[in-house]
Design a protein that fits this description.
Number of domains: 3
Number of helices: 9
CATH topology of the largest domain: D-Maltodextrin-Binding Protein, domain 2
Helix content: 25-40%
Distance between the termini: 53 Å
Order of helices and strands: HHHEEHEHEEEEHEEEEHEHEEH
Strand content: 25-35%
CATH superfamily of the largest domain: Periplasmic binding protein-like II
Structural class: alpha/beta
Length: 298
């Protein structure tokens, strides 16, 4: 019994949510898929799917087995690539995730360089402002901003960013420049949704954390918060890379810099494995070099 083959059939049926879909994906006949699943269930002595004439659903044991089966298949694929040679030309598909604006500003230029260097590669991006589960969503590499909890992911630190407070020169000329975090209560505040969910801005004063509760004049998305600040509506709290262009051109100005909290690390992550495939290894190497050389991120 080829257990790796049976696992592959199981994963296909689970992800396609049916035996017919699994058979089409694998190019196998429906009876062959049915026999494979029955053989796997017989080997495991556990039922993986509930079957009726109308639907196929995984059992609780099936859900638990799915993640392990994906991990085993990925490890086997990685071992094959490693045996084929560490210098093998990257080929196949790569799925990459990052936050929306960071992906647009920094990751896409790296992907373009990568695909020009390795034309056999195909890349799909998942740029979202939420934490993505790499295994559950089929992601190969994540560029993540923030301190990382202990996990089974491999990660390397490649950059750092700062939480900054800024406003347009016109706003500051009209309303004055606050000299301490507490003075923000006398100013119009723009909050970017997701960055200040509790309506608080964090600082460090006299080597101790300081949290200032603010009343927002406007709560909106990041891009709109930047636009509103540039147009003089008020003061906003963002991540340094998000306004690098506005700071360079002078349409926004940093304030209260001496009270900034500790910088936040940027990591490149991928799933733990004994081997790292050529496509993942080469992308990480290229992206790490680019991000470490980016002066706005260090």
């Amino acid at each position: 019994m080829d257990r790796l083959h049976l696992m592959s059939v199981f994963v296909a049926v689970a992800e396609e949510e049916g035996f017919s879909g699994g058979s089409r994906r694998l190019g196998m006949s429906p009876p062959a898929v049915t026999r494979a699943i029955a053989g796997l269930e017989d080997h495991l002595k556990v039922k993986l799917f509930h079957r009726t004439t109308r639907f196929v659903r995984m059992t609780e044991a099936g859900f638990r087995y799915l993640e392990d089966a994906r991990r085993v298949i990925a490890a086997a694929d990685e071992a094959d690539e490693a045996a084929a040679g560490i210098n093998a030309e990257p080929h196949g598909q790569l799925v990459i995730t990052a936050s929306v604006l960071f992906g647009r500003l920094y990751v896409i230029p790296g992907i373009v360089e990568y695909m020009k260097r390795y034309p056999e590669m195909e890349v799909s991006t998942l740029f979202v402002d939420r934490v993505v589960n790499l295994l559950e969503e089929g992601v190969d590499v994540a560029i993540r901003i923030g301190h990382l909890p202990d996990s089974s992911y491999r990660a390397q630190r490649v950059a750092k960013v700062r939480r900054v407070v800024c406003a347009s020169p016109d706003y500051l000329a009209e309303h004055g420049i606050p000299q301490s975090p507490e003075e923000l209560s006398g100013h119009q505040i723009i909050l970017a949704r997701g960055l200040n969910p509790s309506g608080e801005i964090r600082f460090v004063k006299d080597d101790s954390p300081l949290t200032v509760k603010v009343k927002a004049k406007l709560v909106t998305d990041i891009d709109s918060a930047i636009t509103a600040a540039v147009n003089g509506l008020g003061i906003t709290n963002l991540i340094s890379y998000q306004i690098i262009n506005q700071l360079t051109e002078g349409s926004l100005k940093l304030i209260l810099s001496e009270f900034e909290p500790q910088s936040t690390p940027v990591h490149i992550m991928h799933c733990e494995g004994r081997y790292t495939s050529a496509k993942i290894r080469t992308f990480i190497d290229l992206m790490a070099e680019r991000l470490r050389a980016e002066t706005s991120l260090n």
